[in-house]
Design goal:
CATH superfamily of the domain at 47-124: Photosynthetic Reaction Center, subunit C, domain 2
Radius of gyration: 26 Å
Mean pLDDT: 84
Number of helices: 4
Largest sheet: 2 strands, antiparallel
Distance between the termini: 93 Å
Number of strands: 2
Shape: elongated
Helix content: 40-55%
Strand content: under 5%
CATH architecture of the domain at 47-124: Orthogonal Bundle
Order of helices and strands: HHEEHH
Low-confidence stretches: 27-32
C-alpha cells in the first residue's frame, strides 16, 4: 500500500514537472500584444482592464459592443472585428475620450480640489447620445428676463 502511494506521488510529481517544462517552452507574450489598433487607450493595457473599460463605456451609454464594433460574418472565430474602424461611432468614442481627458487634466484639475472627474456617464446618463437639457422654467408675467 505504501509503495503504491509513493508511486502515485512520484507520477504526479513527474507530470507536474513535465507541465512546468512545457509551459516554460511556450513563447513569452507581452501583455498588450493581443490588441491591435489601440489609439487612445494605453498599448500595454491588460485584457481585464480593457474589458472593464469597455463594459464601463457600455453602461455609460446604454449600449453593447455592436454600437462601436463591426460584427464578423457568421462562423468566424471572433464575433466582432475589434480592430476595424469601419463604424464612425468608434472614432467618435476616441474623440470623446480625448475630450474628457483634456477636461479632466487641463480644466478640472485647476478648479476642483476634490479631484472629481468627468466621464462618459457625466453627460450620456445611460444613453447613446446625451439627453437634451431640461427646458427653462416658465417666466411669470411681469417678471424681468434673467440676466446673463
Amino acid at each position: 500500500m505504501r509503495m503504491r502511494f509513493v508511486a502515485v506521488i512520484a507520477a504526479l510529481l513527474l507530470a507536474a514537472c513535465a507541465a512546468i517544462r512545457a509551459q516554460k517552452g511556450q513563447p513569452v507574450r507581452a501583455d498588450g500584444s493581443e490588441f491591435t489598433n489601440l489609439q487612445v487607450l494605453p498599448s500595454n493595457i491588460s485584457h481585464d482592464e480593457l474589458i472593464a473599460t469597455m463594459r464601463g463605456f457600455a453602461r455609460a451609454l446604454g449600449t453593447r459592443c455592436d454600437h462601436c464594433h463591426v460584427e464578423n460574418p457568421p462562423g468566424s472565430k471572433e464575433r466582432f472585428a475589434f480592430a476595424s474602424d469601419k463604424k464612425p461611432e468608434k472614432n467618435i468614442a476616441r474623440t470623446m475620450l480625448r475630450m474628457t481627458r483634456t477636461i479632466n487634466n487641463q480644466y478640472l484639475k485647476r478648479v476642483d480640489e476634490k479631484g472629481q472627474k468627468v466621464a462618459c456617464i457625466t453627460c450620456h446618463l445611460g444613453h447613446p447620445e446625451p439627453p437634451p437639457p431640461p427646458p427653462p422654467p416658465p417666466q411669470s408675467e411681469g417678471a424681468a428676463p434673467p440676466k446673463s
